[in-house]
Specification:
Elements: H1 2-12, H2 17-39, H3 41-51
Protein name: Flp family type IVb pilin
Keywords: Membrane, Transmembrane, Transmembrane helix
Organism: Vibrio aquaticus
Length: about 55
C-alpha cells in the first residue's frame, strides 16, 4: 500500500513542471533570436562595418 501511495504522490507532484516550462521557454527564445540574427545578418554586418570603420 505504501508503494502505491508513493507512486500516486509522484504522479500528482507538479513542482517539476515549472522547470520544464522554463527550459522550453528559454529554448524558444534561443531559436527565435537565432532566426532573427540569421534573417538580418547581412544588414547587421554592414551596419557594424560602417560603425567601426577605421579610415
Amino acid at each position: 500500500m505504501a508503494v502505491f501511495l508513493s507512486v500516486r504522490a509522484f504522479f500528482k507532484d507538479e513542482s517539476g513542471l515549472t522547470v520544464v516550462e522554463y527550459v522550453v521557454g528559454a529554448g524558444l527564445m534561443v531559436v527565435g533570436l537565432a532566426g532573427l540574427f540569421l534573417a538580418f545578418s547581412d544588414t547587421l554586418i554592414a551596419e557594424m562595418n560602417t560603425i567601426f570603420q577605421t579610415d
